Amino acid sequence: MCGIFGYYTYGVPKDLKYVLDTLFNGLKRLEYRGYDSAGIAVDLVDPNPATKKDTPDGTIPEENGTHDGVAPLIVKEVGKVSALESLTFDTIHRDQIEMGRMFNNQVAISHTRWATHGPPSALNSHPHVSDADCEFTVVHNGILTNFKLLKEFLIKHGETFVSETDTEVIPKLCKFVYHRLSEPVPFPKLVMEVLKKLEGAYALLIKSTHYPGELVACKRGSPLILGIKDALGVRRTSFSRIRDADDKKWRSTNMECWIASDASAVVEHTKRVIVLEDNDVLHLTAGGYGIYNTSQQDVEEAVPRVLLTLQVEVEQIMKGGFDHFMQKEIHEQPESLLQTMRGRVQFQRPAVGNPYLQPRVKLGGLVETAETIRRCRRIMFVACGTSYNACLAARQTVEEMCDVPVVLELASDLLDRRCPIFRDDTCVFVSQSGETADTLRALEYAKSKGALCVGITNTVGSAISRSTHCGVHLNAGYEIGVASTKAYTSQILAITMMALQLAEDSISKREKRDQIIDELGQLPGKVRTTLMLDNSMRELAKHLKDEHSLMFFSRGYNYATALEAALKTKEVALIHSEGILAGEMKHGPLALVDENLPIVVVCTRDSMYKKMDGVIQQLLARSARLLIVCNEGDEAMKAYESRGCKLIQVPETVECLQPVINIIPLQLLSYHLTILRGFDVDQPRNLAKSVTVSEEH
Question: Does 569 map to a domain?
Answer without folding.
Answer: yes
